[in-house]
Design goal:
By secondary structure, the chain is of the alpha/beta class. Helices cover 31% and strands 14% of the residues. It folds into 2 domains: 17-213, Nitrogenase molybdenum iron protein domain (Rossmann fold, 3-Layer(aba) Sandwich), CATH 3.40.50.1980; 229-348, Rossmann fold. Helix 2 (80-87) links the parallel strand 4 and strand 5 (94-97). The protein is globular.
Length: 353
């Protein structure tokens, strides 16, 4: 284990610029404040949304006359968005969901995702919802994990196509581009931004703030307990996502912020900005690894995958201690990054917890 470096997080991107519009024909009070604006201020203080609500998302303005009731969630290799909707208690608005990892670090969530409607859609080669099927679902809000989910060249309905149907669209502000890359250094704050955005759009801002506050409290307890402790070198790997296990090693991603808060560091993070890295077996062998984290994405036996990696490097402290952990959705963007922080911290520093 090594001394803890200073974690250089990128500037937090604001996910939405939000303005609420209300009918200004109501008579004003003596001080010039209208009844409508007073009611709007009261609703805002209570964590409620006043409609019409206008948001700016990825440089475009969208207006909601009411909370969406026919929501389509595109895949994009994510479960951040559908998990956030479930956590906020508004998953009953979903008419078609394409996001699913088949596993979760939160009890009951995988089953809750499985139970959501899929809209009877046949997914395309990108395992997502093609244009004609999307238009046939008659959504009033379409959520994509990145800007490419609205790329006509990939066979998807564009944001303009959807507006013609009267449907708004949403992309997390950190992923407005079409290549799926996150702008800047991704952090847990980006997960919170999604919750705040959905809280405003679906009139559940109070619930969003509760979820965020609970997450921050849980992470705060972990970081306080780890104060002064050395960092552990952690190998974070995604078996099955590359040509072999060592071509799917974690590079840039929210997981680096999670590791930092859990008392760990990614020794293979470089300046390339690539999400996944290929690391030679020689470099792996020469790097001190204290623990292995295996991400379960549709993996039939993630424990077997972890043990197979450890067996190749008997010199690692991780191997000698059989120190590994299987994670699923909590290591990605989503409402449960605090779960990953706590699980990793307990693996690395069992005497502290």
């Amino acid at each position: 284990m090594r001394g803890r470096p200073v974690f250089a997080a990128g500037a937090l991107l604001l996910a939405l610029v939000v303005t609420s519009c209300s009918d200004d024909t109501t008579g004003g009070s003596a001080n010039g404040t209208t009844g409508a604006s007073t009611a709007a201020a009261q609703r805002a203080a209570e964590g409620r949304t006043t409609y019409p609500l206008t948001i700016t998302n990825c440089g475009r303005k969208y207006t909601f006359d009411k909370a969406p009731s026919r929501v389509v969630v595109m895949n994009g290799g994510s479960v951040a968005e559908v998990s956030s909707l479930i956590e906020l208690g508004v998953s009953d608005r979903i008419v078609a969901n394409a996001q699913n990892y088949g596993a979760s670090d939160v009890p009951g969530r995988a089953e809750a995702i499985d139970a959501l409607p899929t809209g009877g859609v046949t997914l395309n080669d990108l395992q997502d919802i093609p244009r004609e099927a999307m238009l046939g679902l008659r959504p009033d809000l379409v959520i994509s994990t990145y800007g490419g989910g609205f790329d006509a060249a990939s066979g998807f309905a564009t944001r303009d196509d959807l507006l013609k149907l009267g449907a708004n669209s949403y992309v997390p502000a950190s992923a407005c581009g079409t290549d799926g890359m996150t702008a800047g250094a991704p952090t847990i704050e980006d997960s919170y931004a999604i919750l705040r955005d959905f809280g405003k759009i679906f009139d559940v801002s109070g619930k969003a703030q509760e979820v965020i506050a609970a997450s921050k409290d849980r992470i705060g307890e972990v970081t306080k307990a780890l104060a002064g402790k050395p960092d552990a070198n952690v190998l974070l790997v995604f078996p099955g996502m590359g040509a072999d296990d060592f071509s799917s090693i974690a590079g840039a991603g929210v997981w680096n912020d999670i590791l930092d808060k859990a008392g760990a560091v990614n020794p293979f993070l470089d300046s390339s900005g690539n999400t996944f890295l290929t690391v030679s077996k020689e470099k792996l062998a020469s790097t001190d690894i204290d623990a292995v984290l295996v991400v379960n994405y549709m993996n039939p036996d993630p424990d077997k995958a972890a043990k197979a990696i450890l067996a190749q490097f008997p010199q690692w402290d991780a191997t000698r201690a059989n120190r590994y952990l299987v994670l699923a959705d909590s290591i990605y963007f989503g409402p449960s990054n605090d779960v990953a922080v706590e699980k990793i911290a307990k693996l690395l520093h069992p005497d502290t917890f």
